[in-house]
Amino acid sequence: MKKFYDRELEMRQLREMQRQAYEDYSRFVVLTGRRRIGKTSLVYRLLEETKAETPGLYFFVGRKAEATLVRTYCEEVRTKLGVFVPEGITSFRNLMQLLFDIGKRRQFTLFIDEFQEFDNVNAGVFSDMQDLWDKYKKVTKVCLIVSGSIFRTMEKIFKDEEQPLFGRDDCTIKLQPFTTTTMREILGDYKADYTNEDLLALWTITGGVARYIEQLMNNHCTNVKKMLHYVCSSGDSYFIEEGKSVLVQEFGKQYGTYFSILDQIAHGDVTQSEIEAALGAKSLGGQLKVLEEKYGIIKKKRPVGAKDGSQTVRYEIQDNFFRFWFRYIHRYASLIEIQNLPALEQIMTEDYPTFSGIALERWFRQKMMESCRYRTIGGWWQSGGVNTKGNSDEFEIDIVAETLDGDIEAYEVKRNPKKYNPARLREKVGMMQRHLYRGREVNMKGLSIDDM
């Protein structure tokens, strides 16, 4: 994707931090977001757009010896700032000392990518940064931007009160997946006559993550058949390896248990008791809490109107790509191991209508969130009701939302609009009204792939 999409708000925030740093004194920006979301591309764009005004430095923190990294950084400083950097600097602290001394006389932007990797190179760097930042911030004009992809480590570095860099950042930006509007724009640029089925496939597989979309678009995969075929194109396919490489970085050695839990959630075991029964575990409450609160990979779903302490809880994987990866790649790893990728592609193709139906519901929720018209968006369910035939029934409404004006809306989501049953939705809404919106009017509608 040569064209730069979206990110207007984040670019304005970075520009403002840069302006304040240059006109007032140094600013410290932390840029976070899951891997492949586009953090590096965003800051590259900033540096490219502002290079005529002020120079920008780019330091990538790889897992190398500190002295090796610093030699690379010194060359970047010589080239971009055009200043003398003495030979023999081998520590990051000494290099930062030099940069802050330069920052007293001139303004520039320093971007440190994968900042959390210093924890593996030399954890003392964080204390050195705190010391130098506290000393030089008010007397220099440096816009310092650091980014990181490993959520738990970045959270620890900047949000843990016991860590040296706690509270040092002036601004934290968390980059999110592309909006539904931007995804339309991207697909339209690569396939002017795209269908809603094409758009749903792109959303179902990538979840709006920039790098995944780029991979598919650059390989001319603009419909579901081509997308699924590309995912299964080889045993070392980008998509096949991606889920594990991203999550093992997050979870470390404990990834096995977490992978098992996520696998069950992706396949429909959505309550704690269902997950525990499937895995033969006594209690997984602690692991579920970690996945939700520490990693932000899953989230609790409660019926609209339920209190926070309610035990009527379901879990879902927040990231569409991880849902896709656990549903197919992780679950059928044995097929990949023996290179039977045609069989994997067939499984994906046959299951896709069901799986994408769930993704369609998430699409509509996301679209509603982006409209900023609502104060509440969720679902509603009630077990153990009695249907019109007198049988025990499960009452569930896909989307229930309350607008800022107080109007209540209820939606039934079906891929095929012919499967929408208005009478059944009215029955469900009637049950919900008896429990929740008593005496209030509820606007009802069916949503399908035609409404995307």
Radius of gyration: 25 Å
Number of strands: 11
| Neighbour order of strands in the largest sheet | 2-3-4-1-5
Query: Low-confidence parts lasting 5 or more residues at pLDDT below 50?
Result: none
Query: What's the structural domain tally?
Result: 3
Principal-axes geometry comes out as globular
Q: How many strands, what sense, and barrel or not for the largest sheet? A: 5 strands, parallel
What is the average per-residue confidence, as pLDDT, rounded to a whole number? 93
Tally of helical segments? 19
Percent helix: 40-55%
Strand content: 15-25%
Give the CA-CA distance, first to last residue. 23 Å
The helix-and-strand class reads alpha/beta
Order of helices and strands: HEHEHHEHHEHEHHHHHHHHEEHHHEEEHE
Write a brief structural summary:
The protein has 452 residues and is of the alpha/beta class. The chain is built from 19 helices and 11 strands.
Helices, strands, pairings?
Blueprint: H1 8-23, E1 27-32, H2 39-50, E2 56-60, H3 66-81, H4 92-103, E3 108-113, H5 118-121, H6 124-136, E4 142-148, H7 151-159, E5 171-174, H8 180-190, H9 196-206, H10 210-218, H11 224-231, H12 238-251, H13 255-266, H14 272-279, H15 285-294, E6 298-301, E7 314-317, H16 320-330, H17 333-337, H18 341-371, E8 374-386, E9 392-403, E10 408-413, H19 422-435, E11 442-447
Parallel strand pairs: 1-4, 1-5, 2-3, 3-4, 10-11
Antiparallel strand pairs: 6-7, 8-9, 9-10
Helix pairs in contact: 4-6, 8-9, 9-16, 9-18, 12-16, 13-16
